[in-house]
Structures are given as C-alpha cells and as structure tokens.
Amino acid sequence: MIPSKEEMYAALEERHGKELQKLFSETAVVICGLGGLGSNVAISLARAGLGRIHLIDFDRVDISNLNRQQYFPEQLGQYKADALKDTLLKIAPYCDITSQSVKLDEENIPVLLADFPIVCECFDNAEQKAMLVNSVLENFPDKKLVAASGMAGLGSANNIVTKRIARNFWLCGDGKSDVNEGLGLISARVAVCAAHQATMVLRIISGKDEA
C-alpha cells in the first residue's frame, strides 16, 4: 500500500528537518538531458522530496543506455522523458513530475526554461553542453546552473569535484576525461558525478551555495 502524502513528508521531515524539507518542497528544478547524469540526478532529487521536477530530453531509451542510466529493459523504445517520469512517480508519488520530449536549442531555451530557478545541464554531447550553458548564462543570469564535464573511464572517483565557476554557475566532474579519448562511460563513475550535481542543487536550495 502506498503511504499517504502526509506520511511520506513526515518521514522526509524526520530525515531532513522540517525547515529544510519545506525549502525542498517549495523548489522547482529542470533537468536537461536524461541519460546517465540526468536520470541519476532526477532520482536523487525525487527522493529528497523536491516540489517540482521537470524533465527534458528528445531521445528514446536504447539498449546501450542500460549500463548506466536509470531505465529498465521493458522501457526500451519509450521516450526517456516519459519513462523516467513513470519511474520517479513510483519513487515519489506526490512530487509534481512534468516532462517534455523535445530537443533544446538556442531558440526554445528562453521559453522552455523560463519557469525554473535551478537548471541542471546533463547532456552527453560537448557541443550541446556548451550551447545550453551559454544560453542559460546569456538569457537567465539570475538562474542557478549546475553542469557537468568529465566523468568517463575508471579514474578515481575522488577526482570528481564541484567547482564554482561564476556567481550562479557550478561545474561537476574531473574536467578532462572524455569518451572521445577512447574511455567508456561506467555506471559508478557517472553516478558519482550525478550525485555531485544533485548535492549541489540541494545545497543551493538550502542556501549553502558554496561549492
């Protein structure tokens, strides 16, 4: 039996404290890209009891995603935005989970991201990453932006860090490991970077926005 909303939020308050949980519950975050980074970030934030999580990705679940992304074999072929929404609602049934299967670009970013105070950049492609970061910084200088770069291979997880790049911009990763160098994307290391991103989002919400 699914617990009531009151029961679930009482349990969250017991773990996080009433004041902090209230901040989490009143916050909206948009996650751009729902692969190894985005799907893991989304699950961490849903478990924290965020008020609203908006999911954006144009891609479908492929068998090559299953080694590191939070999808199931029965979801193959589904749009990632739809599949991940279903999973998150099983984890956090009272969270406001919304989703769009659309490819972000310089033209639609000012419209699609306008309502969210915190943006998580979770793309795989370096050019898409740069496009999103530059668009957000240009169009929304007051939004909080948490991005990632460098989580490929089997280098030490201790090399993955969070750095504050600008007033409202944080970057997670080792800053150098890249799949173009022949390094694979391994579930554990990608998840470490995603955990850095999710932690930074929660720190921003709590007012502890130093890296």
TrEMBL record:
The source organism is Ruminococcus albus (strain ATCC 27210 / DSM 20455 / JCM 14654 / NCDO 2250 / 7)
Boundaries of each THIF-type NAD/FAD binding fold domain copy? 16-210
Superkingdom of the organism of origin: Bacteria
- Share an example GO biological-process annotation for this protein: cyclic threonylcarbamoyladenosine biosynthetic process
Q: What is the name of this protein?
A: Thiamine biosynthesis protein ThiF
Q: Which InterPro entries match?
A: ThiF/MoeB/HesA (IPR045886), ThiF_fam2 (IPR012729), ThiF_NAD_FAD-bd (IPR000594), Ubiquitin-activating_enz (IPR035985)
Recorded GO terms, molecular function? tRNA threonylcarbamoyladenosine dehydratase; ubiquitin-like modifier activating enzyme activity
